[in-house]
Specification:
The structure is a single chain. The chain contains two helices and 24 strands. With 279 residues, it is mostly beta strands. The chain has a single domain, classed as Jelly Rolls (Sandwich). The strands form five sheets. It has a seven-stranded mixed β-sheet with strand order 1-3-4-11-6-9-12, with no helix packed on it. It has a seven-stranded antiparallel β-sheet with strand order 2-21-18-23-15-14-13. A hairpin with a 2-residue loop joins strand 7 and strand 8. InterPro entries: KduI (IPR007045), KduI/IolB_isomerase (IPR021120), KduI_N (IPR027449), RmlC-like_jellyroll (IPR014710), RmlC_Cupin_sf (IPR011051).
């Protein structure tokens, strides 16, 4: 049975008063993948949707939740997918796309039917999904790491040596507002997105994976002078408001997917926060 959850937006004043349970209830998405289900969470920050599809031994379809008030899911939306499991086949209005591990797919507005299946049921695909409202129909397109714009940042000395793979971004393909990519931390590095930043022109969501068994990631959020943290496990996602930092430190190296939407497609559109000014 598919799931759909809607979460309201919160201001910094509200979040300042939240305890651990309230923070997790409002921002953490614990169950991204469940066998033969599509789990979706709608955030009222930029009407962004985060979710996952995990087909095991059968084909499953992208649902059209009643809350969207649409004739089909992508009537007024665009969709981004990154595969974090076994080899997948995604069919969009009859066109088939094969996605290997860490390959991405953009599906444009107006696509009526989308389905997901695993090539091998013993190694099920895990299709991480982000979706944002769209005003224009752009062609669906697969993007592999070979097609990505790749940037190397950080250093072992500051425990943040990482590779940023810009997959579904405007320097690689056309989208309306959805942007997605994947950051891989090198062995011995644990910090992501540090120094931290905010960008009031768009919200963001992080999905943490390749977190080794028995290890965790501490995700940091909040205004730079009023930070909070959420402990996260493998294959979990977290919503980041546009006024919030979005950074993390793990007890091991790991990989995460970032997705965002808003009024600006410029990846470099950031308001930087000095490390020594964080509180």
């Amino acid at each position: 049975m598919n799931t759909f959850e809607s979460r309201y937006a919160q201001s910094p004043k509200e979040v300042k008063q939240m305890d651990t349970s309230a923070l997790r209830e409002n921002f953490l998405i614990e169950n991204v993948f469940e066998a033969n289900q599509v789990n979706l969470t709608l955030s009222h920050f930029d009407r962004y949707i985060v979710g996952g599809a995990m087909p095991v031994g059968q084909k499953i379809d992208l649902p059209n939740p009643d809350d969207l008030k649409a004739n089909f899911f992508l009537e007024r939306r665009e969709l981004g997918i990154i595969n974090v499991g076994g080899k997948a086949i995604v069919t969009a209005d009859g066109e088939k796309f094969e996605l290997n591990y860490k390959e991405a797919l953009y599906i444009g507005k107006g696509t009526k039917e989308v389905s997901f299946e695993s090539v091998d049921g013993n190694q099920p695909a895990k299709l991480y999904i982000n979706s944002a409202p769209a005003h224009h129909a752009y062609p669906s397109k697969k993007v592999s790491k070979a097609d990505a714009e790749i940037v190397e940042l950080g250093a072992p000395e500051t425990a943040n040596h990482r590779i940023i793979n810009k997959l579904l971004v405007n320097s690689v393909l056309q989208t309306c507002q959805l942007q997605m990519g994947m950051t891989e931390l090198k062995s011995g590095s644990v910090w992501n997105t540090m120094p931290a930043h905010t960008h009031d022109r768009r919200m963001e969501a992080y999905f943490y994976f390749e977190v080794p068994e028995g290890q965790s990631v501490c995700h940091f959020m909040g205004q730079p002078q009023e930070t909070r943290h959420i402990w996260m496990q493998n294959d979990q996602a977290v919503i980041s408001p546009n006024w919030s930092i979005h950074s993390g430190a793990g007890t091991s190296n790991y990989t995460f997917i970032w997705g965002m939407a808003g009024e600006n497609l410029d990846y470099g559109d950031m308001d930087h926060c000095a490390i020594t000014e964080l509180k």
